[in-house]
């Protein structure tokens, strides 16, 4: 099991914790309700996409070209982590006309049905089943564990993944022990451990109100973190399969990430044919929250 945990485990602090702090001392539940309201007012609707729930926003017109973009969150996180990209906030460009955005909640997360198998490749199959309900071809962006899952989706469904955006993505063998240290935190989160983890995940950590931390911890424990850890297999790492990714690929990497090793970025660039690496200075493990303008350029720009 230790070897499996070392194998590029995707770990992530709840983006909602940092975002909640930006609104001051409001309770965690209030912050999340306000973010859901902002998504609704911005045109994003909560929908079922095959086996998964998602936030969907579309500016596509019948009969006109439609660019489909899928957003995949990391371990312990949720589709809410992509709200700035969906709404064009924090310096992010608004999604252009003719775009369908689908930010999915992975199995067992925030209302999506639990999975019989929480293995990485199995979750990629569930993700494919969700995306096939909307479009035949996608730009797929995944952060951390979501990047690992998205990598397998690109390997197993090359005709469906035209572009791949890996955002501080996991999925490679990790000799540094960074991943396993973070995994232990998420497997049994405590307030003090999560404070340390937050400092490692963000380039500029925001102070989270003390009274918000119990709800943050509860939300992590409500998601299938333990089940995913238990389902990790060494054969699911992508080291030897990066060469099989046929999609146009950009690798975004927040340089201040203290959760996953920086070496993952260059190894992914070398392994994926034609991949381009974009380093983001003064940015941590969650660029979609901390540096959303870089993410939106990769998602919506004419070229990667």
Features:
single chain, 304 residues, Rossmann fold, 13 helices, 8 strands, disordered N terminus
Walk me through this protein's architecture:
The chain is of the alpha/beta class. It is built from 13 helices and 8 strands. The chain has one domain (2-300): Alpha/Beta hydrolase fold, catalytic domain (Rossmann fold). The chain has an 8-stranded mixed sheet with strand order 1-2-4-3-5-6-7-8, with helices on both faces. The longest helix has 14 residues, at 28-41.
Using only C-alpha atoms, the radius of gyration works out to: 17 Å
Low-confidence stretches: 1-25
Q: Tell me, what's the shape? A: globular
Strand arrangement across the biggest beta sheet: 1-2-4-3-5-6-7-8
Intertermini distance: 37 Å
Q: What is the name of the CATH superfamily? A: Alpha/Beta hydrolase fold, catalytic domain
Task: Kindly provide the name of the CATH class.
Answer: Alpha Beta
Structural class of the helices, strands and pairings? alpha/beta
Task: Give the structure's gist in a few sentences.
The chain has 13 helices and 8 strands. The chain has helices spanning 2-6, 15-21, 28-41, 83-87, 120-131, 145-156, 178-187, 191-201, 213-221, 225-231, 263-271, 287-290, 292-300; strands spanning 45-49, 52-58, 67-72, 99-104, 138-144, 161-169, 248-254, 276-280.
